[in-house]
Design brief:
Elements lengths: L25 H13 L3 E4 L8 H7 L21 E4 L10 H14 L5 H11 L4 E8 L2 H15 L5 E4 L9 E8 L5 H13 L6 E5 H5 L15 E6 L6 E6 L4 E2 L2
Parallel strand pairs: 1-2
Antiparallel strand pairs: 2-4, 3-5, 3-6, 4-5, 6-7, 7-8, 8-9
C-alpha cells in the first residue's frame, strides 16, 4: 500500500523472524501504490455533495470494513482509497510527466541523488504537494482518527484526506494521508500538523512529499533516501500540549 509502513528510514527491516525484506523493496511498494491509485476510489466531494449526507457516507465506508480487494462473488469491486475532498480542494497542476522524464535523465547522468536534487526537480515542474501520514492498526483507533481528519476536510480545514481500505492479506496496518500544497513551505507543513492535532489525533506522524511518491522513492530504495522528511510526535507532557516536529533532512527540531 502507498506510503508503506512506518518503520523505515531506508534501512532493511525484518518484520517477522523468518521473513527478510529484499533490497530495493521500494519497487514493490511503488507497484502496490500504482495499483491502488488505478483502482476505483470511494470519494465524498464536499464541494458538490450535501453536508447532510456525510454521516451516512462515513458510516457506510469505514476503512476497517471496506475490503481493498472487494468480493468477486458478491460483485463488489476492489477499492484503491477512501477519500474526502475538502471545500478548498484543487486538483494538482504540476507537470508529473515532465518530472519523471527529468528524473530519468538525472539517473542516466550518474549525478548523485539527494533530497536537494529531488527538491530541485519538484520546484522546476511544480510538483510541490505533500502529506502527513498516520500508520494505524485496523480497528477502532484507525476509524476514529479517520473520522477526525475527514470532518476537518468537510469543514474546509484540509484540502484532501484519504485512507487505505483494509487489506486482509497485509500486515494489519492502514495509512491515512492528509495533504497540503507545498512541502517546501515549512510553516505550511507545521500548520497542517496543528490542524490534525486539533482534531484529537495523537499518534506519531511522518511527512512525505508527493514528488517522492511519483518517483517511486519508498523505504529500502536504491538511493538510500529516507522516504519522509518530517516526523511529528505529540508531547503529552508539554503545556499547552503540542507536537514535537523534527526535520529529518537536517535533523533539526522545528517545534
Amino acid at each position: 500500500m502507498e506510503e508503506e509502513g512506518a518503520p523505515g528510514d531506508g534501512e532493511v527491516v525484518t518484520p517477522v523472524a523468518a521473513e527478510v525484506v529484499t533490497p530495493f523493496a521500494a519497487e514493490t511498494y511503488a507497484a502496490e501504490a500504482m495499483a491502488a491509485d488505478m483502482d476505483p476510489w470511494i470519494v465524498f466531494d464536499s464541494r458538490k455533495t450535501p453536508r447532510s449526507e456525510f454521516d451516512g457516507w462515513l458510516e457506510s465506508n469505514g476503512p476497517s470494513q471496506v475490503n481493498r480487494f472487494g468480493d468477486e462473488e458478491s460483485g463488489v469491486s476492489p477499492v484503491g482509497w477512501i477519500a474526502v475532498l475538502g471545500l478548498n480542494h484543487c486538483p494538482s497542476t504540476g507537470d508529473v510527466t515532465g518530472l519523471q522524464e527529468s528524473w530519468e535523465k538525472l539517473l542516466a547522468s550518474g549525478r548523485p541523488v539527494s533530497f536537494q536534487t529531488v527538491k530541485e526537480l519538484a520546484l522546476n515542474h511544480g510538483v510541490l504537494s505533500g502529506k502527513w501520514l498516520m500508520h494505524l492498526d485496523s480497528g477502532f483507533k484507525l476509524d476514529h482518527a479517520w473520522e477526525c481528519v475527514a470532518r476537518a476536510a468537510l469543514d474546509g480545514k484540509i484540502s484532501l484526506v484519504k485512507v487505505s481500505p483494509h487489506n486482509p492479506k497485509g500486515e494489519g496496518k492502514q495509512v491515512i494521508c492528509a495533504y497540503n500544497q507545498n512541502f517546501t513551505d515549512e510553516s505550511e507543513v507545521i500548520r497542517l500538523d496543528n490542524v490534525i492535532r486539533a482534531t484529537g489525533v495523537k499518534c506519531s506522524l511522518t511527512y512525505k512529499p508527493d514528488v517522492y511518491t511519483y518517483l517511486g522513492i519508498y523505504r529500502n530504495n536504491r538511493w538510500k533516501l529516507c522516504p519522509t522528511i518530517y516526523e511529528s510526535k505529540f508531547d503529552l507532557e508539554r503545556v499547552p500540549r503540542r507536537s514535537h516536529i523534527v526535520n529529518k533532512v537536517t535533523n533539526l527540531e522545528v517545534t
